[in-house]
Amino acid sequence: MNVQIRKMCQEDYDAAIAILDKWNMAPVEPSDDIENPERSVLDIGKSFVAVDSGRIVGVCSYILHNPELAETASLAVDQSYCGKGVGYHLQVARLDEMKRIGIRTVHTETDREDTINWYINKFGYKRTGSNPNKHDFSLPDVDTWTVLQLYLNNYEIKE
Q: How far apart are CA 146 and CA 144, in angstroms?
């Protein structure tokens, strides 16, 4: 396996959306049924992909809220690559970029207990609360997001 992490480009968009869709995390447009979706766009300029032999096998992104606050958005890895460190390297890439551009605080929401523990144990996040889900997104049987926060001044860039 020779997976490389790089910034996303327009040509990666459909493959990235397909991976997000497999995890029920693809962005959706606002509609009569879903007025305020969890995610309505995938911002290519704030996204990274994992590539193996020319094939997109993972994606992650972030959202800027202000010059010092950002939110992680929809990290997803092709199921055949889970457990191989792809998600870890995607997360490191986006944290490194956020720290370089001056972000001090990273907000993350997730509904998966194993992912919550992963963020806490691998990156030093802290639980800070919960938020209700807006619609069926990610796990269909969980209706609450666990809110996590990371202070990037405590995070070392992995070069």
A: 7
pTM of structure: 0.89
- State which residues of the chain have pLDDT below 50: 159
Q: What are the tens digits of pLDDT across the range 59-86? A: 999 999 999 999 999 899 999 999 999 9
Nearest CA among 159, 73, 154 for reference residue 120: 154
Question: In a 10 Å sphere around its CB, with 0-12 CB exposed, 13-18 middle and 19+ buried, how is residue 153 labelled?
Answer: exposed
Residues with Cβ within 8 Å of residue 80, at least 6 apart in sequence: 57
Sheet strands (E) in the chain: 3-7, 47-52, 55-66, 69-77, 105-110, 126-132, 144-151
Q: What stretches of 27-112 show up as alpha helix (H) in DSSP?
A: 86-100
